[in-house]
Fold this sequence. Notes:
Strand order of the largest sheet: 1-2
Number of strands: 2
Number of helices: 6
Helix content: 40-55%
Distance between the termini: 29 Å
Radius of gyration: 18 Å
Number of domains: 2
Strand content: 5-15%
Amino acid sequence: MLSKKTKYAINALIHLAKRKDEGPILISEIAENENIPQKFLELILLQLKKAAILASKKGRNGGYYLLKSPDEVNMAEVMRLIDGPIALLPCASGKYYERCEECKDEETCGIRDVFFEVRNKTVELLKKATLSEIILRENLRGE
């Protein structure tokens, strides 16, 4: 299940992607439009800025804006940034691998094999799910 923090991050990114040609957007505007607590949103946007997904401009006409194209920002990247591993088991993780304490033989473990396959399919789908793809799906469903 997605954490609330990740869901907020995705909603904020989609908001910014939809308005990418308008310049920087105020945190207060994103928070109000997306129903996200502003203080919590500030922390999320800073995290996305440190990851070079967003940039910000201070002062008059300031705010946050996408640094990357909406085609380049995928859900696997966002989920890993905010919540860490996507895999359901640490031994099936690609980027956050840890051996399971109770494992007798990782090479022949059927549980690991199944969850490694689940992880691979999940990551494959999440990488295809870019901000552009999500907006496209919203637009198609709204017609």
